[in-house]
UniProtKB/TrEMBL annotation:
<keyword id="KW-0560">Oxidoreductase</keyword>
<dbReference type="Pfam" id="PF06628">
    <property type="entry name" value="Catalase-rel"/>
</dbReference>
<dbReference type="GO" id="GO:0046872">
    <property type="term" value="F:metal ion binding"/>
</dbReference>
<dbReference type="GO" id="GO:0020037">
    <property type="term" value="F:heme binding"/>
</dbReference>
<dbReference type="GO" id="GO:0004096">
    <property type="term" value="F:catalase activity"/>
</dbReference>
<protein>
    <recommendedName>
        <fullName>catalase</fullName>
        <ecNumber>1.11.1.6</ecNumber>
    </recommendedName>
</protein>
<dbReference type="InterPro" id="IPR024711">
    <property type="entry name" value="Catalase_clade1/3"/>
</dbReference>
<dbReference type="InterPro" id="IPR024708">
    <property type="entry name" value="Catalase_AS"/>
</dbReference>
<feature type="region of interest" description="Disordered">
    <location>
        <begin position="1"/>
        <end position="25"/>
    </location>
</feature>
<dbReference type="InterPro" id="IPR011614">
    <property type="entry name" value="Catalase_core"/>
</dbReference>
<keyword id="KW-0479">Metal-binding</keyword>
<dbReference type="GO" id="GO:0042542">
    <property type="term" value="P:response to hydrogen peroxide"/>
</dbReference>
<dbReference type="GO" id="GO:0005737">
    <property type="term" value="C:cytoplasm"/>
</dbReference>
<feature type="binding site" description="axial binding residue">
    <location>
        <position position="339"/>
    </location>
    <ligand>
        <name>heme</name>
    </ligand>
</feature>
<dbReference type="Pfam" id="PF00199">
    <property type="entry name" value="Catalase"/>
</dbReference>
<keyword id="KW-0376">Hydrogen peroxide</keyword>
<keyword id="KW-0349">Heme</keyword>
Length: 501
């Protein structure tokens, strides 16, 4: 910034003569209608808020670089992966899910982990969470589920009764609930947690072969979580703990890094694999599909302006690039539609022209006009296709290989297909085989604390229904929670008759 004085002006450039005293009829008189500067200041202020995101409203963002460290060109022709050492600029936004824009960063909640890769063939958005699974596996359930995480319509309070009522009636949520209730539900800011693309996507290589893929970002800072009481204490001390932590780390040159890894499933395996690979409530065990290194993502630049860059950032799972495609995951299919729709509502139809969202490489199409079109609108170039004037063409080499949707495909989606309604095996493995005894104890304690919040006439019904799910995942998990809640466990013990059923 140079030290030359600069004139204060209206938005249309007229210099101000005075900025703090409104024009009045005499020193003590009423104000004059002609004080346009007063009107402009007040009117613009009144329009400063845009709708907050309906979910993931509280968040933090930063720019960085993704660098390829391992060759995966046998699986994908995506240009950003075409050379070891290749760098791609990224913008990332982390978030909590259920709270409002001013809510606490240390709430027990999944954390959003959204990455925008500005690749030379378009922006690729990987809009994931810090967990590999989700609460529901059909997009029709999303709005109902989210309502239970927001405020009760009557009390305007968060309601553990609504949450556990819903979870207990939707046992497919159990895997995600168990992760949420472990100390991974309260990470120490955003730097010490993993990120997951969560859905199954596809990779397409230069030969036109398709592979199913899951993306994992492993924190290179290690995993650090708050205990339940520590997270509560931080809420009282610093609502914005995660924002402050990320901002200060980057300002001080402690650039956080994540190792990007993939699990790859050959296309044909999907038909025979023991789990439905497109079910968002299940993981692919690492021993079946091991992690393969891809590269390193580093965040190294704070945005200059929170509203312009973080609040106006817009991510969409539909934004993929050549070499990366969708999958039949029903949740992903639902999200393809929902996000651009949300952005058009929140930011307007031209949201992709906002600098943080704009593709930094050439964009050619015939979209024109609309509110806040500020990029020249294509100037004199034709606004229709085909035309005799420009040289814009669709390039068939970007086609994806055809996908066979035969009767077998329908069978995978059969709600009663073996394994699809098994909501218990993977959570049981997580509790028994992955968690240490200390982590098990913390998880039980967090669940007991959360379930103690259930109240009202349906309390017993909700508690019992949810306990049954915990028992089905793991007997000792169910027992520990039941004891913590002072529930008589005898009713959950198999009787001689049911044990032989
Ligand atoms: P592995 O032992 O190979 O992997 C276990 C995974 O669990 C690691 O990625 C670990 O992450 C992660 N983890 C550890 N504690 C927790 C926790 N409290 N909440 C969530 N994740 C945790 O086992 P499998 O691949 O056979 O999977 C076993 C279970 O582990 C699954 O049922 C699932 O619940 C969980 N899991 C599996 C993942 C997968 O993609 N296979 C991914 C994440 C969890 P880290 O290495 O960072 O400590
Ligand atoms: C944000 C819908 C599932 C991760 C949002 C937003 C909507 C939405 C409308 C707000 C977008 C905006 O205004 O900018 C849905 C629907 C889902 C779904 C309909 C299921 C059908 C998921 C899942 C994940 C996820 C499974 C993670 C695996 C995120 C993230 C954000 C977000 C990270 C915030 C992005 C940002 O930082 O701007 N979601 N969501 N969502 N969602 Fe989802």
């Amino acid at each position: 910034m140079d030290n030359q004085p600069q004139k204060l002006t209206t938005a249309s450039g007229r210099p101000y003569a005075e900025n703090e005293n409104s024009q009045s009829a005499g020193a003590r008189g009423p104000l004059l209608l002609q004080d346009y500067i007063l009107h402009e200041k007040m009117a613009h202020f009144n329009r400063e808020r845009i709708p907050e995101r309906v979910v993931h409203a509280k968040g933090s963002g930063a720019y960085g670089t993704f660098t390829v460290t391992n060759d995966i060109t046998q699986y994908t022709r995506a240009r950003l992966f075409n050379q070891v050492g290749k760098e791609t600029r990224v913008f990332m936004r982390f978030s909590t899910v259920g709270g409002e824009k001013g809510s606490a960063d240390t709430e027990r909640d999944p954390r959003g982990f959204a990455v925008k890769f500005y690749t030379e063939e378009g922006n690729w958005d990987l809009v994931g969470n810090n967990t590999p699974v989700f609460f529901v596996k059909d997009p029709k359930k999303f709005g109902d589920f989210i309502h239970t995480q927001k405020r009760d319509p009557y009390t305007n309070l968060k309601s553990p009764t609504m949450m556990w009522d819903y979870w207990s009636l939707n046992p497919e949520s159990l895997h995600q609930v168990l992760i949420l209730m472990s100390d991974r539900g309260t990470p120490v800011g955003y730097r010490f947690m993993n990120g997951y693309g969560s859905h199954t996507f596809s990779l397409i290589n230069a030969k036109g072969e398709r592979f199913w893929v899951k993306f994992h970002f492993k924190s290179m800072q290690g995993i650090r979580n708050f205990s339940g009481p520590e997270a509560d204490a931080m809420k009282a001390r610093d609502l914005d703990f995660a924002q402050r932590d990320l901002l200060e780390a980057i300002d001080n040159g402690h650039y956080p890094k994540w190792a990007l890894k993939v699990q790859i499933m050959p296309e044909a395996d999907a038909k025979t694999y023991k789990w439905n690979p497109f079910d968002l409530t299940k993981v692919w065990p690492h021993k079946d599909y091991p992690l393969i290194d891809v590269g390193v993502l580093e965040l190294n630049q704070n945005p200059d302006n929170y509203f312009a860059e973080v609040e106006q950032s817009a991510f969409a799972p539909a934004h993929v690039v050549d070499g990366i495609g969708y999958s039949p995951d029903k949740m992903l299919q639902g999200r393809l539609l929902s996000y651009p729709d949300a952005h058009r509502y929140r930011l307007g139809g031209n949201y992709e022209q906002i600098p943080v969202n704009r593709c930094p490489y050439a964009v050619h199409n015939y979209q024109r006009d609309g509110q806040m079109r500020v990029d020249g609108n294509g100037g004199r170039t034709p606004n229709y296709f085909p035309n005799s004037f420009d040289t814009i063409v669709a390039d068939a080499s970007y086609k994806e290989p055809a996908q066979t949707l035969d009767s077998l495909v329908a069978d995978w989606y059969d709600r009663n297909a073996p394994g699809d309604n098994d909501h218990y095996t993977q959570p049981g493995i997580l509790f028994r085989e992955v968690m240490t005894p200390e982590q098990q104890m913390a998880t039980v304690q967090n669940i007991v604390t959360a379930m103690r919040g259930i109240s009202g006439p349906k309390k017993e019904q909700i508690v019992f229904r949810q306990l049954c799910h915990f028992f089905r995942a793991d007997m000792s998990l169910g027992m520990a929670i039941a004891r913590g809640l002072n529930v008589n466990v005898d009713q959950f013990m198999p009787t001689a008759q049911s044990a032989h059923a």
